[in-house]
From TrEMBL, chains A, B:
One of its GO terms (molecular function) is transcription cis-regulatory region binding. This is LacI family transcriptional regulator. Residues 1-53 form the HTH lacI-type domain. PROSITE patterns: HTH_LACI_2 (PS50932). Keywords: DNA-binding, Transcription, Transcription regulation. It comes from the Bacteria. It comes from Allorhizobium taibaishanense.
Length: 328, 328
DNA sequence: TTGAAAGCGCTAACAG
DNA sequence: CTGTTAGCGCTTTCAA
């Protein structure tokens, strides 16, 4: 900026002003400065700007995995909405691990983000403390935390699966199974499994047909392997709910390889409304959790909180059951 | 740090040293400082650190879309390899748009990253200038640029598809088609299409069976729609190569809906070795471009360049043809 | 092994 | 509309 100021014959402060859209500065001065900047190959230094003004334009976001269309949609919604205010996302992956999440949160907070968005409502005690002490908006997503740290934008994973079980029982299925990950790591998957068990108990049905397909996330292949185990150990199962559409599709392919018709031989459902479930043959019954909406609403909430005009602290999403050809 | 220094009875400089792993400081002093820091809820300020030391721990990365398993794998490889040196990724999405890429590159460079990784070898002139002037390692990926800005880690998209056409012609297919996006936006997709046309011409076959399925990226649904058009307008097509496994799977489902057997009625191939092609029924012939390797190798190249000990400027990947059940 | 002084590049605050 | 001064929180540099 000093160089530009020298070339243009103004003070560094005026150069600084020329790069802000709002500040009052004459058009000619600004044009001359911007031209000189381009000439000199000047690149604005956000680091110095952030340090001096004590406000970054970062929003920190942690997701379990970058390679998941649902979380990608949430990040997309966040990113696009925050871009309207020139805020940038600082993204980290926890790999479905709370310890890793803690490390990541600590690292991200060092950048002094304006807000932080985390996935899920369960964290290590230290992570909770770090978030609470950061004195910035904290948004938990993809869950309805029993004890929110700050704010949340999410839905009940257990409740959503309960609704699906209710529907399946309604249309006459009795021997239902659930394919998910190993318990204890992916808390959203565990919550879905818990919702399955609770709903089965409520209906007086056997809740023990649970297949654990390995550590989350469960791939298509693991869904297929789980379906193979299910068909071999509990061949009278009438319908199976999978923790995601990806594992549900894997399960479907296993049936196709074995010549078992879906849904007449066995019904299959997934979770997450991934594109594959809408186009596979047969299409797959699923639950739409409005991934992109979660991101957009979280971003809007952040902007409102920063403006001091948030209407609500929390946003609860109503997931939608989508009935397709893989079930009756 | 001043607060911690006061509490601990040392100078701020000593506190600073306590947070570096290497620096020489007595064990007792460091322990006391770290304990005081935890007590006070101190969070290290990377912004100030970066400004003073004039080096960030950022590597900037631009990808066309976050919601793409191939690019996600590349970012995963980058991220994990760079994490070994405590470097963090600053990620941006271009949405397959060179103008947007230019804006993004400008924004990312303001953070003074240590290196920048971009997808593809085509950029606006201004973006090229910005990258060249940044005086940091620039890595182009997923392509073999005719005129590299700095370094590249990639493969020839055209060459990979050429190899696939050669194989198809070898095994007896003659009337081949290509399903891709509209020309002009996604340059990797266009390159694949060009590779198809070149190879067909080389074999003296008709290269005009080209279906444009809309602006990239092409979804499963768009692949299905394109296949419907292909079957209606050019029903004697023997095999179709799709720009990605996702569109290939969509095309496959369209055949299934119409009762057309694959590969006996028509053969289908994709690109990218997505999980879906390995598990669908039938499995889908594809090209493995080693997405994750691209990221890992780019990261390793960056680390070597920063250490001043890079063995090679560029890394050319050899894509691998994977023959599966969707083709003869 | 520790400390003192200076300053990274920008902008808040105030003055004109 | 423009300029001056000071300082954000750290680390480089030099000294002890």
């Amino acid at each position: 900026m000093a160089d530009i100021a020298r070339v243009t014959g103004v003070s560094p402060m005026t150069v600084s002003r020329a790069f802000k859209t709002d500040s009052l500065i004459s058009k000619e001065t600004r044009d001359a400065i911007l031209m000189a900047a381009e000439d000199l190959g000047y690149v604005f230094d956000s680091t110095a700007s952030n340090l001096r003004s004590q406000r970054s334009d970062f929003v920190a976001v942690t997701i379990p995995s970058i390679n998941n269309a649902n979380f990608a949609d949430t990040v997309g919604g966040l990113s696009e909405t925050l871009a309207t205010r020139k805020m940038q996302i600082l993204l980290g992956y926890t790999n479905y691990d709370m310890q890793e999440e803690e490390r990541l949160i600590e690292q991200l907070l060092r950048r002094k983000p304006q807000a932080i968005v985390v996935t899920g409502g369960k964290h290590t005690p230290r992570a909770r403390k770090l978030l609470a002490n950061a004195h910035i908006p904290v948004i938990e997503t993809w869950d309805v935390p029993p004890d929110p740290i700050g704010h949340f934008v999410g839905f009940s994973n257990a409740g959503a699966v309960c609704g699906m079980v209710d529907h399946f029982v309604d249309v006459g299925y009795q021997r239902l199974a659930f394919i998910g990950g190993d318990v204890g790591r992916d808390t959203r998957g565990s919550d879905r499994r818990n919702g399955f068990v609770a709903a089965m108990n409520r209906h007086g049905l056997d809740p023990s047909r649970l297949i654990a397909a390995g550590p989350p996330p469960i791939s298509m292949r693991e869904g297929a392997n789980a379906m193979a185990r299910l068909l071999e150990t509990l061949p009278d199962t009438e319908a199976v709910i999978c923790v995601s559409d990806l594992s549900a599709f894997g399960a479907l392919t296993e049936c196709q390889r074995r010549g078992i018709p879906v849904p007449d031989g066995i019904a299959i459902a997934g979770f997450g409304n991934y594109e594959i479930g809408a186009i596979s043959v047969p299409t797959i019954t699923t639950i739409n959790a409005f991934s992109r909406d979660i991101g957009e609403k979280a971003a809007r909430l952040i902007l409102d909180l920063l403006d001091g005009q948030a209407l609500a602290d929390n946003i609860t999403i109503q997931p939608e059951l989508i009935l397709r050809d893989s079930s009756r």
